[in-house]
Amino acid sequence: MATLSQIELLSSSQAAELSQVERRRYEAAISKSESRNLALWGILMSSVFVASVFRIAAVFQYNPLEVLITDPGRWWEAATHLSNIQPIHAIDAPGYPLWLALFIQIAGSSATAIALHNSALSIITPWMWHRLVRELTDDRDLALAGWAIFSWLPSWISIYSYTMSETLFLPLFGAALWCSVRTYKSGSSRSYLGSALLWAAASATRVFALPVSLACLLWTIRPHGKRVAETRVGSKLAYAVFAFAIVAVPLSIRAHHILKVWDPFGFPRMNQIYMESGRKSLRFNISRDSGAYVWGYEFGSPSLYQEPLSPVSHWISSRDGITSFSINEDNGRSDWDQALQRYRASFRQKLRIWSENYVMFMFAPSWPDNNPGRFWDHAAIWLRWCWLPLAIWVIGMNIRLRKQLGTGMTGLVALVTTAAWTLTPLLPAVMEGRYRKPIEGLLIVNLLLLVQCSKSRRMTRRAPVARHG
């Protein structure tokens, strides 16, 4: 008959053996998980590498200098004739032509140089947005999956075969968001200054970034979870003003020299007149110096000459006719304001204009990268049908998981995505498909954030509840 001491000794030896079995099982599970993660990393990195090769090949196959008509031609003209006082150079946002002009001064304007320039931007863009996802989620695998998605996105490949401002705006916008998340986490004044400079540069490239920059800079002025003295907040505010001033002041002087207005990030009044007029074409002339210089322009949004719902429907915009006016730069903004009052739309007309804007924003193919004879353009045309369902799902989940998204930068990105998708068609401009491009990036980032929230919820539900007593 076993004694009590023998039973205790047997129990302890069994427990030790059981502990070793569990340890081996745990180590095996960890090893299996590491192998699986390594395999996933290899697949995703291979996907990114192959996509990067295709991105470069696409630019060299269809060189950006092959199409220099309409918008691409206007941007190229502005970049290669910086000293020209053509008014359109101040109406458009100045960031991209100034950047392109700087590159041309350094590397030249050959087809090879421009292809290398656009290839570099094409490769940098997905990486910038990948860094944003990594900073938001602290999840290497999820960020890597985002990098692969961004790298293969047809609408973010096709545009780099053209000299368009989106080629610079997409990486700038991603970099500004990434830097804002880093600033929010660190609370560093130096990081805040860098973030403000990036937002100023992005706003100078596309004025779309200006309201987003305001939200991000205000959101990050005080670091999360820390109490900061008012002098620290005041210094950050001074940094933001300084960053925007060093960008906006010289651009304002440039705008006044060319157009006799002080708008540093482009002059949106022309687009507003066009939008509110309800007409199909815009025709106007601009004079200055008592008529010594006269320029004539005629524009028409490509969305108005497309069937945005094709092949499902042959619907086209109801806009018709021509908007005509004359501007004397010597009068400053007054002629522009008079033209706007002349074509000011009633509220009922605005409802029709806004409804058409929503259709064109959500479904119109992007211009100029809508050539069905080019593979990536053609793929982007078909992929446009995915964005509305994705936006509806993302916005719905943002509302459902608002507590999990929180009030930090994750919550702000969800808020910006929701606002950008729902409110952009209300801006004073005739919508085009290319205006979706930065919001496509926001939707993908938001989707990945929701995936992380769902994973966290499942883990919380599976976690054992501690019992007391």
Q: Could you estimate the helical fraction of the residues in percent? A: 55-70%
Strand order of the largest sheet: 2-1-3
Ends: how far apart? Answer: 36 Å
Following the backbone from N to C, one meets helices and strands in this order, namely: HHHHHHHHHHHHEEEHHHHHHH
Count the domains.
Answer: 1
For the secondary structure, the number of strands is 3
* Unreliable sequence segments: 226-231, 465-469
**Shape assignment:** globular
Q: If you average the pLDDT, what whole number results?
A: 91
Rounded to the nearest angstrom, the radius of gyration is 27 Å
DSSP summary: helix tally: 19
Main sheet, how many strands, which sense, barrel? 3 strands, mixed
Q: Estimate the strand proportion.
A: under 5%
Structural class: mainly alpha
